[in-house]
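Supplementary Note 3. Input sequence used for the single-chain structure prediction.
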Amino acid sequence: MIDVPVHAHGLGRKNHRTVTNPEPPQQPHDSFIASFDLQYQNTLGTNSPAAPVRNLVVNPLPAEGQWAVHFPELGDWTVIAYYAAGQKVGAWHASGTALVVDLTARPQGLYLLVASTPPGTRYSAKIVRP
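The predicted structure, written as C-alpha cells, is reproduced below.
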C-alpha cells in the first residue's frame, strides 16, 4: 500500500488528508525502465547484422555420461577434462566443429572442459556428471 497525501487547496495544511492507494498484487516489471519495452536491435547508422556469439556449446547426449561439444569455428581442437578437484581425467582431439566427450568411466561430479587450438584460442565449459 502506498500512502499518498492529498491537498484540497494549494500546498497549505488546510484540508489535508492521506489516501491509501493499493498497489497491484503483481507488477509486470521490476523496473519502470523495462516497462517502456524498448527494442535495441541495431546500432544507429548501420545495417549489418550483429555478429554471432562465439562460444563453446556443450549438450548432453541420451547416453549417460556423454556430451556433444560444438566448437565456435572450424579447426584442430584439443579438449581436456578436469575433475572438480583439479586433476586431468581425459583428453580428446578433433578436426572440425564437433566432438563427443565420454566420461562414462568417471565418477559423478563437476567437470571442467577446456577446448583449445594451436594458435591459442581457448574456451571452457562446466558439466555435471550425474
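The two ends are 47 Å apart (CA to CA). The CA atoms of residues 1 and 26 lie 13 Å apart.
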